[in-house]
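Help! Submission page says 'invalid entity' but I think these are all valid:
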Amino acid sequence: MTTATEDVRTELTVRLSRDVDAAFPELVSSYQQAVYTTVLRLSGRQVDAADLAAEAFLRAYQALRRYPPERVRQLKLRPWLITIALNLWRNQVRTATRRPAHVSLDSSPEPPAGSGGPEEHLRRRELRTTVAGLLAQLPETQRLAVVLRHVVGLAYSEIATILHCPEGTAKSHVSRGLQHLRALTTDTDLQEELS
Amino acid sequence: MNSINTDEDPVIRSLGELVAQPPVGFDHLVIARYALVPGPLGEVFVAFTDRGISYVRPADQVEQDADRFAEDFRDRFGRPIERAGRPPAGLVPALRTGRARELAFDLRGLSEFEQAVLRKALEIPRGEVRPYAWIAREIGRPKAVRATGSALGHNPVPILIPCHRVVRSDGQIGNYALGPAMKHELLHAEEVDLEEVGRLAAAGVHYLASDTTGVVCYPSCRHARRITPPHRVPFGTLGRAVEAGYRPCRDCRPALADTA
Protein backbone atom coordinates (compact mmCIF):
# COMPACT_ATOMS: atom_id res chain seq x y z
CA MET A 1 0.00 0.00 0.00
CA THR A 2 1.38 3.42 -0.89
CA THR A 3 1.78 6.17 1.64
CA ALA A 4 -0.75 8.34 -0.18
CA THR A 5 -3.61 5.85 0.14
CA GLU A 6 -2.60 5.19 3.74
CA ASP A 7 -3.14 8.87 4.48
CA VAL A 8 -6.56 8.91 2.89
CA ARG A 9 -7.62 5.89 4.92
CA THR A 10 -6.29 7.31 8.19
CA GLU A 11 -8.25 10.42 7.57
CA LEU A 12 -11.41 8.42 6.97
CA THR A 13 -11.38 7.05 10.52
CA VAL A 14 -11.09 10.60 11.82
CA ARG A 15 -13.98 11.73 9.66
CA LEU A 16 -16.04 8.70 10.71
CA SER A 17 -15.36 9.57 14.35
CA ARG A 18 -16.67 13.07 13.77
CA ASP A 19 -19.71 12.32 11.62
CA VAL A 20 -20.47 8.70 10.75
CA ASP A 21 -23.24 9.57 8.34
CA ALA A 22 -21.21 12.05 6.33
CA ALA A 23 -18.25 9.68 5.93
CA PHE A 24 -20.03 6.33 5.67
CA PRO A 25 -20.69 6.33 1.89
CA GLU A 26 -16.94 6.70 1.37
CA LEU A 27 -16.31 3.75 3.68
CA VAL A 28 -18.59 1.65 1.48
CA SER A 29 -17.05 2.78 -1.80
CA SER A 30 -13.48 2.37 -0.50
CA TYR A 31 -13.86 -1.13 0.92
CA GLN A 32 -16.75 -2.79 -0.88
CA GLN A 33 -14.43 -4.58 -3.30
CA ALA A 34 -12.21 -5.99 -0.53
CA VAL A 35 -15.15 -7.20 1.57
CA TYR A 36 -17.09 -8.58 -1.39
CA THR A 37 -14.06 -10.32 -2.89
CA THR A 38 -13.15 -11.93 0.43
CA VAL A 39 -16.64 -13.34 0.94
CA LEU A 40 -17.00 -14.45 -2.67
CA ARG A 41 -13.62 -16.19 -2.87
CA LEU A 42 -13.89 -17.77 0.52
CA SER A 43 -17.37 -19.14 0.05
CA GLY A 44 -17.72 -19.71 -3.68
CA ARG A 45 -21.47 -19.60 -4.34
CA GLN A 46 -22.26 -20.98 -0.91
CA VAL A 47 -23.77 -17.67 0.17
CA ASP A 48 -24.95 -14.57 -1.63
CA ALA A 49 -21.72 -12.62 -1.38
CA ALA A 50 -23.35 -9.26 -2.15
CA ASP A 51 -26.03 -9.68 0.52
CA LEU A 52 -23.51 -10.84 3.08
CA ALA A 53 -21.10 -8.02 2.30
CA ALA A 54 -23.98 -5.52 2.53
CA GLU A 55 -24.98 -6.96 5.90
CA ALA A 56 -21.38 -6.59 7.08
CA PHE A 57 -21.40 -2.88 6.20
CA LEU A 58 -24.70 -2.50 8.01
CA ARG A 59 -23.26 -4.06 11.16
CA ALA A 60 -20.23 -1.81 10.80
CA TYR A 61 -22.50 1.21 10.57
CA GLN A 62 -24.36 0.23 13.71
CA ALA A 63 -21.07 -0.29 15.56
CA LEU A 64 -19.70 3.06 14.35
CA ARG A 65 -22.77 4.80 15.73
CA ARG A 66 -22.22 3.15 19.11
CA TYR A 67 -18.47 3.44 19.48
CA PRO A 68 -16.90 6.44 21.23
CA PRO A 69 -14.91 8.65 18.79
CA GLU A 70 -11.49 7.58 20.12
CA ARG A 71 -12.33 3.95 19.41
CA VAL A 72 -13.43 4.78 15.85
CA ARG A 73 -10.20 6.69 15.23
CA GLN A 74 -8.17 3.64 16.22
CA LEU A 75 -9.96 1.22 13.92
CA LYS A 76 -8.01 -0.54 11.19
CA LEU A 77 -10.90 -0.28 8.80
CA ARG A 78 -10.04 -2.96 6.26
CA PRO A 79 -9.29 -5.84 8.64
CA TRP A 80 -12.14 -4.70 10.89
CA LEU A 81 -14.70 -4.81 8.06
CA ILE A 82 -13.40 -8.14 6.77
CA THR A 83 -13.58 -9.61 10.29
CA ILE A 84 -17.25 -8.56 10.59
CA ALA A 85 -17.98 -10.18 7.22
CA LEU A 86 -16.18 -13.39 8.21
CA ASN A 87 -18.15 -13.65 11.45
CA LEU A 88 -21.39 -13.23 9.55
CA TRP A 89 -20.30 -15.82 7.02
CA ARG A 90 -19.42 -18.36 9.71
CA ASN A 91 -22.72 -17.81 11.46
CA GLN A 92 -24.59 -18.21 8.22
CA VAL A 93 -22.75 -21.39 7.31
CA ARG A 94 -23.30 -22.77 10.80
CA THR A 95 -27.04 -22.14 10.71
CA ALA A 96 -27.32 -23.53 7.18
CA THR A 97 -25.46 -26.82 7.65
CA ARG A 98 -28.50 -28.67 6.38
CA ARG A 99 -27.71 -27.36 2.94
CA PRO A 100 -24.63 -29.05 1.49
CA ALA A 101 -21.71 -26.72 0.99
CA HIS A 102 -21.39 -26.08 -2.71
CA VAL A 103 -18.65 -24.27 -4.48
CA SER A 104 -19.14 -23.61 -8.13
CA LEU A 105 -16.09 -23.96 -10.30
CA ASP A 106 -17.30 -21.35 -12.69
CA SER A 107 -18.08 -18.58 -10.29
CA SER A 108 -15.73 -15.84 -11.32
CA PRO A 109 -17.25 -12.60 -12.47
CA GLU A 110 -15.12 -11.28 -15.30
CA PRO A 111 -12.25 -9.09 -14.19
CA PRO A 112 -11.14 -6.48 -16.69
CA ALA A 113 -9.50 -8.07 -19.70
CA GLY A 114 -5.72 -7.88 -19.47
CA SER A 115 -3.25 -7.70 -22.28
CA GLY A 116 -2.81 -10.49 -24.77
CA GLY A 117 -4.92 -11.87 -27.59
CA PRO A 118 -8.15 -13.82 -27.35
CA GLU A 119 -6.32 -17.15 -26.95
CA GLU A 120 -4.22 -15.85 -24.12
CA HIS A 121 -7.35 -14.35 -22.61
CA LEU A 122 -9.15 -17.69 -22.75
CA ARG A 123 -6.23 -19.60 -21.30
CA ARG A 124 -5.93 -17.21 -18.41
CA ARG A 125 -9.64 -17.36 -17.83
CA GLU A 126 -9.51 -21.15 -17.63
CA LEU A 127 -6.68 -21.03 -15.17
CA ARG A 128 -8.48 -18.44 -13.10
CA THR A 129 -11.60 -20.60 -12.98
CA THR A 130 -9.52 -23.59 -11.98
CA VAL A 131 -7.68 -21.72 -9.26
CA ALA A 132 -10.98 -20.29 -7.94
CA GLY A 133 -12.34 -23.83 -7.70
CA LEU A 134 -9.20 -25.31 -6.16
CA LEU A 135 -9.22 -22.69 -3.42
CA ALA A 136 -12.26 -24.48 -2.04
CA GLN A 137 -10.11 -27.54 -1.33
CA LEU A 138 -7.77 -25.68 0.98
CA PRO A 139 -8.31 -25.84 4.75
CA GLU A 140 -10.22 -22.74 5.83
CA THR A 141 -7.35 -20.86 7.47
CA GLN A 142 -5.00 -21.40 4.52
CA ARG A 143 -7.73 -20.48 2.06
CA LEU A 144 -8.51 -17.31 3.99
CA ALA A 145 -4.82 -16.39 4.29
CA VAL A 146 -4.20 -16.92 0.56
CA VAL A 147 -7.33 -14.99 -0.46
CA LEU A 148 -6.49 -12.08 1.84
CA ARG A 149 -2.88 -11.90 0.69
CA HIS A 150 -2.98 -12.69 -3.00
CA VAL A 151 -6.54 -11.88 -4.09
CA VAL A 152 -7.48 -8.95 -1.87
CA GLY A 153 -3.86 -7.79 -1.41
CA LEU A 154 -3.73 -7.28 2.35
CA ALA A 155 -0.53 -6.67 4.31
CA TYR A 156 0.61 -9.49 6.59
CA SER A 157 -0.10 -7.29 9.61
CA GLU A 158 -3.73 -6.99 8.50
CA ILE A 159 -3.99 -10.73 7.89
CA ALA A 160 -2.54 -11.37 11.36
CA THR A 161 -5.24 -9.13 12.86
CA ILE A 162 -7.96 -11.03 11.05
CA LEU A 163 -6.57 -14.46 11.93
CA HIS A 164 -5.80 -13.44 15.54
CA CYS A 165 -2.24 -14.65 15.22
CA PRO A 166 1.32 -13.25 15.08
CA GLU A 167 2.48 -11.89 11.73
CA GLY A 168 4.97 -14.78 11.31
CA THR A 169 2.14 -17.28 11.66
CA ALA A 170 0.07 -15.36 9.13
CA LYS A 171 2.98 -15.55 6.68
CA SER A 172 3.31 -19.27 7.13
CA HIS A 173 -0.44 -19.80 6.60
CA VAL A 174 -0.11 -17.90 3.32
CA SER A 175 2.95 -19.81 2.13
CA ARG A 176 1.60 -23.21 3.13
CA GLY A 177 -1.73 -22.36 1.48
CA LEU A 178 0.11 -21.35 -1.66
CA GLN A 179 2.16 -24.57 -1.69
CA HIS A 180 -0.99 -26.54 -1.22
CA LEU A 181 -2.65 -24.69 -4.08
CA ARG A 182 0.35 -25.30 -6.38
CA ALA A 183 0.25 -28.98 -5.54
CA LEU A 184 -3.44 -29.07 -6.41
CA THR A 185 -2.93 -27.25 -9.69
CA THR A 186 -0.27 -29.73 -10.78
CA ASP A 187 -2.83 -32.47 -10.24
CA THR A 188 -5.09 -30.89 -12.79
CA ASP A 189 -4.99 -31.06 -16.55
CA LEU A 190 -3.68 -27.52 -16.63
CA GLN A 191 -0.30 -28.73 -15.46
CA GLU A 192 1.45 -27.96 -18.70
CA GLU A 193 0.24 -24.40 -18.73
CA LEU A 194 1.64 -23.83 -15.30
CA SER A 195 5.11 -25.10 -16.02
CA MET B 1 2.58 -2.79 -3.06
CA ASN B 2 3.57 -6.37 -3.59
CA SER B 3 7.13 -7.53 -3.93
CA ILE B 4 6.31 -10.85 -5.58
CA ASN B 5 6.93 -10.92 -9.30
CA THR B 6 3.56 -12.18 -10.40
CA ASP B 7 4.63 -12.67 -14.00
CA GLU B 8 6.76 -15.57 -12.88
CA ASP B 9 4.06 -17.35 -10.97
CA PRO B 10 0.85 -18.14 -12.86
CA VAL B 11 -0.92 -19.28 -9.69
CA ILE B 12 -0.27 -15.98 -7.94
CA ARG B 13 -1.19 -14.09 -11.09
CA SER B 14 -4.45 -16.04 -11.33
CA LEU B 15 -5.21 -15.32 -7.70
CA GLY B 16 -4.66 -11.62 -8.35
CA GLU B 17 -7.21 -11.81 -11.15
CA LEU B 18 -9.85 -13.17 -8.78
CA VAL B 19 -10.58 -9.70 -7.41
CA ALA B 20 -14.31 -9.25 -7.96
CA GLN B 21 -16.40 -6.13 -8.36
CA PRO B 22 -19.57 -6.05 -6.27
CA PRO B 23 -22.73 -5.75 -8.37
CA VAL B 24 -23.68 -2.29 -9.62
CA GLY B 25 -25.70 -0.46 -6.98
CA PHE B 26 -24.07 -2.37 -4.13
CA ASP B 27 -24.03 0.78 -2.01
CA HIS B 28 -27.82 0.85 -2.11
CA LEU B 29 -27.96 -2.59 -0.54
CA VAL B 30 -26.47 -0.81 2.47
CA ILE B 31 -27.52 2.82 2.30
CA ALA B 32 -31.22 3.66 2.10
CA ARG B 33 -32.44 6.79 0.35
CA TYR B 34 -35.24 9.24 0.92
CA ALA B 35 -37.27 11.74 -1.05
CA LEU B 36 -39.69 14.53 -0.21
CA VAL B 37 -42.83 14.15 -2.31
CA PRO B 38 -46.35 15.58 -2.39
CA GLY B 39 -48.93 13.61 -0.41
CA PRO B 40 -52.69 13.90 0.00
CA LEU B 41 -52.35 16.32 2.96
CA GLY B 42 -49.05 18.05 2.27
CA GLU B 43 -45.58 16.77 1.62
CA VAL B 44 -44.26 13.48 2.98
CA PHE B 45 -40.77 12.11 3.48
CA VAL B 46 -40.47 8.61 2.02
CA ALA B 47 -37.50 6.31 2.71
CA PHE B 48 -36.70 3.33 0.51
CA THR B 49 -34.12 0.58 0.19
CA ASP B 50 -33.16 -1.67 -2.73
CA ARG B 51 -36.19 -3.80 -1.83
CA GLY B 52 -38.83 -1.13 -1.57
CA ILE B 53 -40.40 1.63 0.48
CA SER B 54 -39.74 1.22 4.18
CA TYR B 55 -40.72 4.40 6.00
CA VAL B 56 -43.11 7.31 5.55
CA ARG B 57 -43.58 10.43 7.65
CA PRO B 58 -45.57 13.57 6.90
CA ALA B 59 -43.14 16.49 6.65
CA ASP B 60 -45.23 18.41 9.18
CA GLN B 61 -44.47 15.80 11.82
CA VAL B 62 -40.72 16.41 11.55
CA GLU B 63 -41.09 20.17 11.17
CA GLN B 64 -40.21 19.92 7.47
CA ASP B 65 -36.69 19.00 8.55
CA ALA B 66 -35.00 16.43 6.30
CA ASP B 67 -32.17 15.90 8.78
CA ARG B 68 -34.65 15.10 11.50
CA PHE B 69 -36.41 12.60 9.26
CA ALA B 70 -33.09 10.99 8.32
CA GLU B 71 -31.98 10.76 11.94
CA ASP B 72 -35.35 9.32 12.93
CA PHE B 73 -34.93 6.66 10.22
CA ARG B 74 -31.38 5.80 11.34
CA ASP B 75 -32.46 5.45 14.97
CA ARG B 76 -35.40 3.30 14.06
CA PHE B 77 -33.78 1.00 11.48
CA GLY B 78 -30.05 1.17 12.33
CA ARG B 79 -29.39 1.80 8.65
CA PRO B 80 -27.65 4.72 6.93
CA ILE B 81 -29.72 6.92 4.65
CA GLU B 82 -29.01 9.69 2.18
CA ARG B 83 -31.10 11.96 0.01
CA ALA B 84 -32.19 10.35 -3.26
CA GLY B 85 -31.68 11.96 -6.64
CA ARG B 86 -35.28 11.12 -7.45
CA PRO B 87 -38.17 9.26 -5.83
CA PRO B 88 -38.69 5.59 -6.73
CA ALA B 89 -40.78 4.93 -9.84
CA GLY B 90 -44.51 4.98 -9.20
CA LEU B 91 -44.36 6.64 -5.79
CA VAL B 92 -45.72 10.05 -6.75
CA PRO B 93 -48.65 8.66 -8.79
CA ALA B 94 -49.45 6.21 -5.96
CA LEU B 95 -49.73 9.10 -3.51
CA ARG B 96 -51.83 11.08 -5.96
CA THR B 97 -54.29 8.27 -6.70
CA GLY B 98 -54.29 6.51 -3.33
CA ARG B 99 -53.47 3.23 -5.10
CA ALA B 100 -50.17 1.78 -3.92
CA ARG B 101 -50.69 -1.91 -4.62
CA GLU B 102 -48.08 -1.97 -7.37
CA LEU B 103 -45.34 -0.47 -5.21
CA ALA B 104 -42.62 -2.59 -3.61
CA PHE B 105 -42.36 -2.31 0.17
CA ASP B 106 -39.48 -3.33 2.40
CA LEU B 107 -41.16 -4.56 5.58
CA ARG B 108 -38.16 -6.45 6.98
CA GLY B 109 -38.07 -6.19 10.73
CA LEU B 110 -41.83 -6.67 11.05
CA SER B 111 -43.27 -10.01 12.12
CA GLU B 112 -45.00 -12.23 9.57
CA PHE B 113 -48.30 -11.38 11.19
CA GLU B 114 -47.66 -7.64 10.95
CA GLN B 115 -46.63 -7.99 7.33
CA ALA B 116 -49.77 -9.98 6.52
CA VAL B 117 -51.95 -7.31 8.18
CA LEU B 118 -50.28 -4.51 6.21
CA ARG B 119 -50.39 -6.34 2.88
CA LYS B 120 -54.09 -6.96 3.43
CA ALA B 121 -54.73 -3.30 4.27
CA LEU B 122 -53.06 -2.45 0.96
CA GLU B 123 -56.00 -4.14 -0.80
CA ILE B 124 -58.62 -1.72 0.55
CA PRO B 125 -59.53 0.64 -2.30
CA ARG B 126 -59.37 4.40 -1.96
CA GLY B 127 -62.62 5.84 -0.63
CA GLU B 128 -63.64 2.64 1.20
CA VAL B 129 -63.24 1.44 4.77
CA ARG B 130 -63.19 -1.99 6.43
CA PRO B 131 -63.46 -3.10 10.05
CA TYR B 132 -60.42 -4.37 11.93
CA ALA B 133 -62.13 -7.77 12.12
CA TRP B 134 -62.23 -7.92 8.32
CA ILE B 135 -58.42 -7.83 8.13
CA ALA B 136 -58.08 -10.41 10.91
CA ARG B 137 -60.44 -12.79 9.14
CA GLU B 138 -58.99 -12.25 5.67
CA ILE B 139 -55.49 -13.19 6.85
CA GLY B 140 -56.80 -16.32 8.55
CA ARG B 141 -56.52 -15.02 12.14
CA PRO B 142 -60.16 -14.13 12.90
CA LYS B 143 -59.57 -13.88 16.65
CA ALA B 144 -56.55 -11.59 16.40
CA VAL B 145 -58.58 -8.39 16.04
CA ARG B 146 -56.75 -6.51 18.78
CA ALA B 147 -53.35 -7.60 17.45
CA THR B 148 -54.48 -6.43 14.02
CA GLY B 149 -55.20 -2.99 15.43
CA SER B 150 -51.80 -2.95 17.05
CA ALA B 151 -50.01 -3.97 13.83
CA LEU B 152 -51.82 -1.21 11.95
CA GLY B 153 -50.90 1.26 14.67
CA HIS B 154 -47.23 0.49 14.05
CA ASN B 155 -47.47 0.75 10.29
CA PRO B 156 -44.09 2.22 9.22
CA VAL B 157 -45.48 3.25 5.82
CA PRO B 158 -48.79 5.02 6.61
CA ILE B 159 -50.73 6.78 3.85
CA LEU B 160 -49.17 4.44 1.24
CA ILE B 161 -50.32 1.31 3.05
CA PRO B 162 -53.72 2.73 3.89
CA CYS B 163 -54.21 1.71 7.51
CA HIS B 164 -56.42 4.80 7.74
CA ARG B 165 -59.03 2.80 5.79
CA VAL B 166 -59.45 0.38 8.67
CA VAL B 167 -62.07 1.54 11.18
CA ARG B 168 -64.06 0.22 14.10
CA SER B 169 -67.26 -1.62 13.29
CA ASP B 170 -69.21 0.65 15.68
CA GLY B 171 -68.70 3.54 13.28
CA GLN B 172 -65.91 5.22 15.28
CA ILE B 173 -62.86 5.74 13.13
CA GLY B 174 -60.50 4.29 15.74
CA ASN B 175 -56.85 4.98 16.44
CA TYR B 176 -54.23 5.92 13.91
CA ALA B 177 -50.45 5.84 13.76
CA LEU B 178 -50.40 9.53 12.79
CA GLY B 179 -53.21 10.55 15.17
CA PRO B 180 -57.02 10.24 14.81
CA ALA B 181 -57.35 13.77 13.41
CA MET B 182 -55.11 12.87 10.47
CA LYS B 183 -57.08 9.67 9.90
CA HIS B 184 -60.23 11.76 9.70
CA GLU B 185 -58.64 14.16 7.24
CA LEU B 186 -57.26 11.41 5.04
CA LEU B 187 -60.62 9.66 4.80
CA HIS B 188 -62.31 13.00 4.17
CA ALA B 189 -59.82 13.70 1.37
CA GLU B 190 -60.75 10.34 -0.16
CA GLU B 191 -64.42 11.35 0.01
CA VAL B 192 -65.40 8.68 2.49
CA ASP B 193 -68.71 9.92 3.92
CA LEU B 194 -67.79 9.59 7.59
CA GLU B 195 -71.04 11.14 8.74
CA GLU B 196 -72.98 8.55 6.80
CA VAL B 197 -70.76 5.76 8.19
CA GLY B 198 -71.38 7.06 11.72
CA ARG B 199 -75.11 7.54 11.18
CA LEU B 200 -75.56 4.01 9.82
CA ALA B 201 -73.50 2.49 12.65
CA ALA B 202 -75.51 4.46 15.23
CA ALA B 203 -78.68 3.03 13.69
CA GLY B 204 -77.19 -0.48 13.96
CA VAL B 205 -76.65 -0.77 10.20
CA HIS B 206 -73.38 -2.45 9.20
CA TYR B 207 -74.28 -3.76 5.75
CA LEU B 208 -76.20 -2.50 2.77
CA ALA B 209 -77.85 -4.78 0.24
CA SER B 210 -79.38 -4.11 -3.13
CA ASP B 211 -82.75 -5.69 -3.87
CA THR B 212 -82.01 -5.49 -7.59
CA THR B 213 -78.62 -7.29 -7.58
CA GLY B 214 -79.22 -9.44 -4.49
CA VAL B 215 -75.75 -8.55 -3.21
CA VAL B 216 -74.87 -7.37 0.30
CA CYS B 217 -71.84 -5.11 0.93
CA TYR B 218 -70.04 -3.04 3.51
CA PRO B 219 -71.64 0.45 3.31
CA SER B 220 -68.55 2.12 1.89
CA CYS B 221 -68.05 -0.48 -0.86
CA ARG B 222 -68.23 1.12 -4.29
CA HIS B 223 -71.08 -1.25 -5.18
CA ALA B 224 -73.08 -0.28 -2.07
CA ARG B 225 -72.63 3.40 -2.82
CA ARG B 226 -74.24 2.88 -6.22
CA ILE B 227 -77.47 1.48 -4.78
CA THR B 228 -80.25 4.06 -5.18
CA PRO B 229 -82.24 4.79 -2.01
CA PRO B 230 -85.42 2.94 -3.04
CA HIS B 231 -83.42 -0.27 -3.57
CA ARG B 232 -81.17 0.00 -0.53
CA VAL B 233 -81.82 -2.64 2.15
CA PRO B 234 -80.02 -2.13 5.49
CA PHE B 235 -78.85 -4.99 7.71
CA GLY B 236 -77.33 -5.11 11.19
CA THR B 237 -75.71 -8.48 10.72
CA LEU B 238 -74.57 -10.39 7.69
CA GLY B 239 -76.46 -13.43 8.99
CA ARG B 240 -79.76 -11.61 8.56
CA ALA B 241 -78.85 -10.56 5.05
CA VAL B 242 -77.90 -14.10 4.08
CA GLU B 243 -81.11 -15.43 5.62
CA ALA B 244 -82.99 -12.92 3.51
CA GLY B 245 -81.33 -14.41 0.43
CA TYR B 246 -78.53 -11.90 -0.20
CA ARG B 247 -75.09 -12.95 -1.41
CA PRO B 248 -71.96 -11.33 0.15
CA CYS B 249 -70.18 -9.03 -2.31
CA ARG B 250 -67.12 -10.58 -3.97
CA ASP B 251 -65.23 -7.30 -3.88
CA CYS B 252 -65.64 -6.10 -0.29
CA ARG B 253 -66.12 -9.67 1.04
CA PRO B 254 -68.18 -9.24 4.19
CA ALA B 255 -68.31 -12.53 6.10
CA LEU B 256 -70.23 -14.03 8.94
CA ALA B 257 -67.31 -14.07 11.34
CA ASP B 258 -67.22 -10.32 11.77
CA THR B 259 -70.88 -9.77 12.57
CA ALA B 260 -70.20 -10.23 16.28
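Support: the input was valid. A stray whitespace character was the problem, and the output above is from the cleaned input. The interface with chain A takes residues 1-2, 10-23, 26-27, 29-31, 70, 74, 78-80, 82 of chain B (CB under 8 Å).
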